[in-house]
Amino acid sequence: MKIALIAHDKKKNEIIELAKTYKEVLEKHELYATGTTGTLIMGETGLPIHRMKSGPLGGDQQIGAMLANGELHLIIFLRDPLTAQPHEPDVSALLRLCDVQSIPLATNATSATIMLEALKNKVYFS
Fold first, then answer.
1. pLDDT-derived band of residue 55, with 50, 70 and 90 as boundaries?
2. Is 60 a catalytic residue?
3. Residues 1, 62, 46, 25: what is their CA dihedral angle, to the nearest 10 degrees?
4. Average pLDDT of span 22-36
5. Short-list 30, 37, 110, CA closest to 74
6. pLDDT in tens, 109-121
7. Contact at 8 Å (CB) between 6 and 78?
8. SS3 of 15, please?
9. Which sign, positive or negative, has the C-alpha torsion 58, 64, 69, 70?
């Protein structure tokens, strides 16, 4: 399964903690991430991650292109709903593509935990 990991700045620590907690689950899958998020997760976990550009520099659009081409199966995108994002149109497009392609999308740590537990227990969704 190909999984994308994305997090706004104020959510980076949360996604790192998720990756550490579920390292044994994530290492069985092919991982993609936007630039800084991928670098931080790799540094903390040693997980191999295909890194895209930083979100504001086009990383969200790169992930979106993969979604549009049917190349991703799960997105974990920990969003900061209380901070305005300069690339909000790209974020909205990414969320819309998940809906169009029927790709599971976790936008907070609780929904991400549920999805990662499903993977851990071999309950796959597609």
1. confident
2. yes
3. -20
4. 97
5. 30
6. 999 999 999 999 9
7. yes
8. helix
9. positive
Residue ranges in 8-125 assigned as alpha helix (H): 12-21, 23-26, 35-45, 59-68, 88-101, 109-120
| CA distances (Å), origin 43, targets 53, 58, 62, 98 | 17, 22, 22, 28
Phi/psi class of residue 31: alpha, beta or left (left: φ > 0; alpha: ψ in -120 to 50)? Answer: beta
* pLDDT value at residue 22: 98
> Among the options 60, 80, 90, 99, which is catalytic?
60
When pLDDT is cut at 50, 70 and 90, the band that residue 125 belongs to is low
d(CA 86, CA 105) in angstroms, rounded, equals 21
Model pTM greater than 0.85? Answer: yes
Asked whether the beta carbons of 76 and 4 are under 8 A apart, the reply is yes
- Rg over alpha carbons for the chain, rounded to the nearest Å, is 13
Of 79, 115, 91, 87, the residue nearest 3 (C-alpha): 115
The model's pLDDT over 56-94, given as tens digits with 9 standing for 90+, comes to 888 888 999 999 999 999 999 999 877 777 667 777 888
